[in-house]
Amino acid sequence: APRAMADMLDGIVMAEQRFHREGYQEGYAEGSHTGIAEGRRYGSLHGARIGSEIGCYLGFALTWHCLLHKCTDEKSSKKIKALDSLLGMIKKFPYEDPTYDRMQEDLEKIRGKFKQVCSVLHIQSDFRIGTGRSSLTF
């Protein structure tokens, strides 16, 4: 009887270890799946916000470029040069590469250039990204 009791205890301990291992594996798989889904959702939202922000800068710069393209005075030339610089930075931005490691740094440079362009154009800049939509106020 003592051997049967020992075998039964071994069976209980082994079952507990097996259930622990299986539970861990199931939990790990579920956590990985949830993490990937949340990461994808966050990435999509963050990417959309960046795209919206840069899109506003692009629309702003192209509009002002059109308004000033016929002006030939020196002040207008300086404004056009600043706009061209902003447009060049926007064109070089790596939209297709989500692993680009200097994306935030480049985005900050574009924001800084936008503020500089607004200053050259004598426009008060205040760009905010809201939860639903972006707004430029002058």
From TrEMBL:
Domain Essential protein Yae1 N-terminal, residue spans: 23-61
InterPro entries: Essential_protein_Yae1_N, LTO1_adapter
Residue ranges crossing the lipid bilayer per the database entry: none
Domain of life from the UniProt record: Eukaryota
PANTHER family reported in the protein's UniProt record: GEO13458P1 (PTHR28532), ORAL CANCER OVEREXPRESSED 1 (PTHR28532:SF1)
Recorded family membership: Belongs to the LTO1 family.
Protein's UniProt name: ORAV1 protein
Organism: Campylorhamphus procurvoides
Gene responsible for this protein: Oraov1
